[in-house]
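Field reference: sequence -> structure
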Amino acid sequence: MDRRRFLRNLLSGATVAALGPALLHGADAFAGDPAEFAAGLRAHPYLAGWRQVSAEAFGPTTVQIEGRLPADFAGTLYRNGPAWFERDGFRYEHWFDGDGMVHGWRFGAGSVTHRGRMVQTPKFKRERSAGRFNTLAAGTTVADPVALRNNDDASTANTSVVVIGGRLFALSEAGSAFELEPDALDTIGPKTWRPDLQALPFSAHPLQDRDGSWWNFGALSMLGGAGLLVWHISRDGQLIDAQVHDMGAPGYLHAFVQTDRSLVFLLTPFDYTPAGSFFESLTFAPQRASTVLVIDKTAPDRVARRFEVEFTMAYHFGDAFERDGEITVRTMRLANVARARSPHREAMFGHHGPAAPAELVELRLDMRTGRGRWETTGLRGMEFPAFDARTPSDRGARLYTPTNAGEATAPYFNAVQMIDPVAGRRALHRYGRDILAEEHVFIPRPGSTRPDDGWLVGTLFDPTRDRSGIAVLDAQHIGDGPIATAWLPYAFPLGFHGHFAQTAA
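Structure field:
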């Protein structure tokens, strides 16, 4: 795409997004009640997973590991999640609204050192000075919002984290990546990949290609603009390319998936009627088909195939593979699209609510005929899928997900599993009735090329002892339980996503 056309597309989308009505609309305040949440917390201790953090920083705190780590296991698990929910008697109603706290769990000889820091975004610093929330949020109406210069002024940087070229970034859906210092976790500031791309969205789910480069997207339609921005970043963190594509109609997406050859985007249709924040104004439209865009990595300036498939709402994807002209995509379908607008909404109010885990489904895309169809697997009760990226590109990978098993006191995951849909195999470890289990990241064993030869690292929350922890499991022996576990003397809220930065042992 030539620069003139690129800029013209941005003017039809991103400039509107930067000043657009969807994110920057204000209205009367309707907030949650911190006292109501506190009362609920006394009745249901697991709600501490949605409790405001007690401080802007934790650690560094070093604790001993229970068990023993392999000699070649070394590195830092970085994680991100919403952590600051209340100011001046006002509590956010939507989990996605909390300001982000990034955690670093650095593994050493027989110990792990934890450090957590609030991301010092312009929003967080401005509201700390004001003593109240004064910025329009994604899912809660905030009164008397201040004027903003661009999307970065509203960013919570609360969804995920990634290390590219040795540089650490906190990510969200609606603005730039925010760079942090990798050891101290001090905030450096928003990353501008090119001056004319300043403050454009860089999503929370970048994907690393086999050559080490990174693909990502920014959904301009979610901000009141138009188009899908596709980023390509080199392994050392330099911008290779950026392209804007016509989405045809507004479509929601939180993540995407790749094969060796293609990028695949599932766009969930929605209607938008201004009624406060973005998610308060959005209604998913299951009466309409979802759109799938397939982009050839060797020609990222155009859409190779556009599919219309049965409606599906999904936040997260597993793997994708391509064989005999057909792409298979694995994703986590959410059956209740109304609840999908605000996951764990009851918990934000201090109420006990139902769990809403997803079902694993497969999307089959015939690249020769342009026809797509969904197939169910019958596997339910999971989210946050991970897999070994070394898996050959012509077959499905084993998936690793948190899941539910047996009795549980919280409507959240209490176990981790490996599922192999092709072989019909499953292995599981249940942490216990009271433990909340989060996303588990796959880490390949150094020097090994065998798929699934490695470990899983996941974070835990124990409300009975008000502590956060971490576990390491052998990916090929999940049923044996963790090979190493560590617990902190304090707790912080549940997070969303993480990234493991391996170092030499």
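Note: The longest strand covers residues 371-382.
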